[in-house]
């Protein structure tokens, strides 16, 4: 197949997907192929090929896990340090994730990327605050998973129609 023929095929696939109003990963491939943490992404997305649905499922799972982490951080936040930082950052992250869900419904890929980037920053800050924690610290490990999930959400959002 010539390079030009391949390009025409990809363009036709993208046009078909955009005209149907349903964003699919190019060629119907696994949307998690764009993520850095593919195994984690696939465990959340569970074979979903629709990009918008895969992104929404990922955001909802991240929100669920963030709420649990916030509950866990609540008991230690008064002692200060990393848990206090994480506890407050989780509120901001949850706000941005809720906005991101609304952005998907509005097909606003630009705002979606902004809100997911903001939530990723909140998780990064929490990760940094927990960096000095004992390697066996369960909470520190969970902050890393939340960071990876947020990174996956942002990667998936790049496939959402702008």
From TrEMBL:
User: What keywords are assigned to this protein?
Assistant: Signal
Pfam families on file: PMEI (PF04043)
Q: Which domain of life is it from?
A: Eukaryota
A GO biological process held by the record? polar nucleus fusion
Is the keyword Signal in the record? Answer: yes
Q: Name one GO molecular function term.
A: enzyme inhibitor activity
Signal peptide region: 1-23
Q: Which residues form the Pectinesterase inhibitor domain?
A: 23-156
For this protein, the record's NCBIfam families field holds:
PME_inhib
The entry's protein name is Pectinesterase inhibitor domain-containing protein
| Organism in which the protein naturally occurs | Eutrema salsugineum (Saltwater cress)
């Amino acid at each position: 197949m010539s390079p030009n023929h391949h390009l025409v095929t990809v363009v036709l696939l993208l046009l078909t997907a955009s005209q149907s109003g349903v964003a699919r990963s190019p060629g119907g491939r696994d949307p998690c192929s764009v993520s850095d943490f593919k195994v984690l992404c696939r465990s959340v997305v569970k074979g979903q090929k629709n990009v918008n649905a895969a992104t929404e499922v990922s955001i909802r799972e991240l929100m669920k896990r963030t709420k649990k982490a916030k509950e866990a951080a609540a008991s230690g936040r008064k002692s200060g340090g990393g848990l206090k930082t994480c506890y407050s950052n989780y509120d901001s992250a949850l706000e941005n994730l809720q906005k991101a869900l609304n952005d998907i419904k509005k097909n606003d890929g630009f705002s979606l990327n902004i809100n997911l980037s903001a939530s990723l920053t909140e998780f990064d800050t929490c990760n940094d605050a927990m960096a000095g924690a004992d390697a066996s610290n369960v909470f520190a490990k969970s902050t890393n998973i939340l960071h990876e999930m947020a990174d996956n959400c942002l990667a998936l959002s790049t496939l959402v129609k702008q």
